[in-house]
Amino acid sequence: MTLEARLQRYLLACLRRDAVRKLYRRAESAGLLEARLVDPANEASAQLWSLTARGQALIEQDRAQSQTKPLSRFGRALNRGSERIDPLRLDDDDGIATINHTPVSAASRGDEDKAALTPSPLRSSTLAAIHTYLPSLPIADVTVALLVARALAKPGLDLQMLFEMLARPDPFIVLGVPVPGFERLCADMLERQFILSQTLTLVDALPGQRLTRHYRDNPRDRGRVLAFSGTYMREKAETELKDAVTKALLNSTTPVLVLDESEVRELPGRLLAAADLVVEGQGVTPELIADVMQISLGIDRETGLAAMHAVEFTPGYLGIADLVAALRPGRSAEQIVGALERLDLANWAAAEESKKDKERNDTGKSGAGGASGQGKKSGKAHARYDLVQPVASATSNPNANAGNGKWTEKILLVEDLVGYGAARDWALDLRSDLHLWREGHLDWSEMSTKLLLSGPPGTGKTTFAKALCNTLQAPLLATSVSQWLEASYLGDVMTAMSATFEAAAKLRPAILFVDEIDGIGRRGAGGPHSDYWDTLVNRALELLDGAGKTEGVIVVGATNSPDKIDPALRRSGRLETHIDIPLPDTEALIGILAHHLGGDLKAVITSRPKPASSTVQAVASLSVGREPPVNSKNAGATASGTEEPRA
After folding, report:
1. Which of 9, 185, 509, 621 has the fewest CB within 10 Å, making it most exposed?
2. By C-alpha distance, which of 367, 311, 365 is closest to 340?
3. Which residues are registered as beta bridge partners of 452?
4. Are 478 and 514 within 8 A, CB to CB?
5. What local confidence, expressed as pLDDT, does residue 123 receive?
6. Does residue 11 lie within any of the structural domains?
7. Domain end position, chosen among 549, 565, 580
8. 180 in a domain, yes or no?
9. In what order do the strands lie in the sheet with 386-388?
10. How much is the pLDDT for 107?
11. For residues 13 and 421, what is the distance between their CA atoms, to the nearest angstrom?
């Protein structure tokens, strides 16, 4: 067994022991178990747990009635929580009346303790059944345990060296793992004895640090350790940091620990030179995520890895809080990976913006490049969009009756939309080309990947983009010019625009849908702020040219007023394909109506009060599998509804 595997087994065993203790306390609160000290005179002695009369009666009743569901009644009583129940009286739904409980005399308690500690088939089977109600191990604790095990298993470090270091009265250890949230959670697990079996009290070595949430330092505390936060240390002045480290090292009887969640090499050189042991781990990897999914959620490790491999997901900006948010019970591996992708992308955008803010502060200039708004510090600007993941496949959720007589909701697909004409043809051609491109048989430059949709409000331009997401099986980044303009200052607006295009490139193949694209304006319009709008149009042209050269980015722009768009945005290589979508005519409305009626279509037609008109007959034709005629000029309606009219 490798060193990492041994460390993982030990750390996970600590977590499982804690889970067992919590389970037993729940059972004690419900009146099913009771605990007493092996040595009543010593409060630090081990606890001996035993079944109460109520717990024993429930187990006997369960065994008598069912062998397939062990302790089902016991489990129902346990899940009632902390409700206190008289162990001599059982609820009617337990099927048992009164149980006579004979107290154990003091003289016979020693013999009972010996019997309880003696293994037996009955005792082992009872413990195994009770342990089926163990809670899942916390995602955060499991993640920290695996990160620590991987860090300590680095080449050049063995357990003997580590044990000798920990046995010293004043070791100075630096433990760095570049994962947000590691510092505080690792400190918490150390104090709860989930990493070392000995009692530790971590004391903040820097004023105001609040790493351990302790507000007082008592020199008489058991297992006292001076703790530094690497993140907080980077914020302190060199002189203050030097004094704090020197003061900690002068105390020859107190260990010093530095917990860091950034790159260890970025810590002050003086600190690293003074450390007796520097341990540096790695960040979140697909293997780590798959291990946490298996340990805490029971999802097979290979299944988790396959889900990440299918979408080529390589995390780079995930923290422990992100894993806690995404790894929720009941989610499939694919759903978890989709959530992690969104979180990773959001963190990346925030990191990029933070880096640019720092550069602007260092240089005293904004990102406006000398245009309007230069030198003004504004609020946070970052990629602004909604990320929509495609439905996994048409076969996993077919667009048909489920076969059980119940109508199931259709997946929104372009091929099922009614009345889109040329836009529908463009999407289906792109689907074929995208398949060839993925197989390496077609160059991206030979494909039509830029589209401008125009039409009155309510004609389904946004719905078309959502359907395109499922048809192409590519993520959709939906944004609008108004979202970009929320940043106000020119530099921030341009940053938001650039970050959105960069996010699409990071997720490629992906669809970038830009609504209200006419809001960018036209160059040469004149007015007091014409330089602002001219700069925006120029930046949009650069981004569209870049997207054209970046394989895997499909751009769809939508507008109600195509005449307000700068002509340069519609030239070759940019939004060169322009398709107009008018309001739906009668035939398109028939298709929309048939879609929304779904399985109720036949019943509605049958219950009509009057003989069928030509329109009703057209709708009725759909109920027997005939498609209504579609006019290619009528491209307004969608089979899933229309957009809400804009104000």
Report:
1. 9
2. 311
3. 557, 578
4. no
5. 59
6. no
7. 580
8. yes
9. 386-388, 476-480, 510-515, 553-559, 450-454, 577-580
10. 39
11. 62
Q: Biggest alpha carbon distance in the chain?
A: 101
Range of the domain at 325: 286-349
The reported pLDDT for the residue numbered 71 is 59
Residues 160 and 67 in one domain: no
The pairing of strands 386-388 and 476-480 is: antiparallel
Cβ–Cβ contacts within 10 Å for residue 553, how many?
26
Which element (helix H / strand E) includes 47? strand 47-51
Question: 432 and 575 in one domain?
Answer: yes
Q: How open is the CA angle 224-226-230, to the nearest 5 degrees?
A: 145
Cis peptide preceding 509, ω within 30 of 0: yes
pLDDT at 143: 95
Query: How crowded is residue 291: how many other Cβ atoms within 10 Å of its Cβ?
Result: 20
Residues 449 and 538 in one domain: yes
Strand residue runs (E) in 218-296: 224-229, 256-260, 277-280
pLDDT beneath 70, residues of the chain: 44-45, 63, 65-126, 128, 155-159, 213-221, 252, 359-383, 392-410, 487-488, 525-529, 548, 588, 591-592, 594-601, 610-647
Q: What is the pTM of this model?
A: 0.55
| Structural domain count, the chain | 5
Count of alpha carbons within 13 angstroms of residue 553, beta-carbon side: 26
Residues 150 and 102 in one domain: no
Between CA 459 and CA 463, with CA 460 as vertex, the angle to 5 degrees is 175
Residue 195 neighbours by CB distance under 10 Å: 22
Q: Is the domain of 374 the same as that of 512?
A: yes
* Backbone torsion region of residue 621, taken as left when φ is above 0, otherwise alpha when ψ lies between -120 and 50, otherwise beta: alpha
Cα separation values, 289 from 15, 130, 161, 337, 504, Å: 18, 29, 29, 9, 24
End position of a domain, from candidates 280, 302, 328: 280
Asked, for residue 639, whether it belongs to a domain, the answer is no
Q: For residues 357 and 380, what is the distance between their CA atoms, to the nearest angstrom? A: 8
Instruction: Tell me the C-alpha distance between 444 and 436, whole Å.
Output: 10
DSSP alpha helix (H) spans, 251-384: 269-274, 286-297, 301-310, 320-326, 333-363
Centroid of chain to Cα 357:
26
Q: How many helices (H) and strands (E) does the chain have?
A: 23, 13
6: which 2 tokens? 């041994």
Please tell me the distance from the alpha carbon of residue 10 to that of residue 307, in angstroms, as a whole number. 29
The three-class DSSP label of residue 77 is helix
Q: Is residue 647 part of a domain?
A: no
Question: What Rg, from alpha-carbon coordinates, does the chain have?
Answer: 33
Nearest to 564, CA basis, from 454, 469, 474, 461: 454
- 453/323 same-domain check: no
Q: Give 625-638 as a DSSP string.
A: TPPPP--TT-----
Q: Are residues 108 and 255 in the same domain?
A: no
User: Where residue 209 sits, what CATH number does that domain have?
Assistant: 3.40.50
Label residue 614 exposed, middle or buried (CB < 10 Å: 0-12, 13-18, 19+).
exposed
